Amino acid sequence: VIYHHGGISIERMAEGFGVTFAQIHAALAYYYDHKTEIDHHLQEEQVLSDQYLAEGKATLSGVLLKRPKL
Question: How far, in whole angstroms, is CA 41 from its chain's centroid?
Fold first, then answer.
């Protein structure tokens, strides 16, 4: 969802994650069916991430290294 909102194409996401177009569409369909709950969870994760970065418990480079290169 984050990549989708960031403008990454379905084709690029499928290639980057090693999944089919259908799987990307299914994941996005699930997201839109549960948007409120998932957006709330993503917001909580963002708050925790910001806190860890501010407290020096994590680095941005460490976070970025865990994401697939799309």
Answer: 11
Q: Are 68 and 12 in contact (CB under 8 A)?
A: no
Supply 8's token pair. Answer: 């990454």
pLDDT digits (tens, 9 = 90+) for 18-61: 999 999 999 999 999 999 999 999 999 888 888 877 887 766 66
Model confidence, pTM? 0.68
The residue written with tokens 């407290």 in the block is 55
User: How many H-runs (helices) and E-runs (strands) does the chain carry?
Assistant: 5, 0
In angstroms, the CA 29 to CA 27 distance is 5
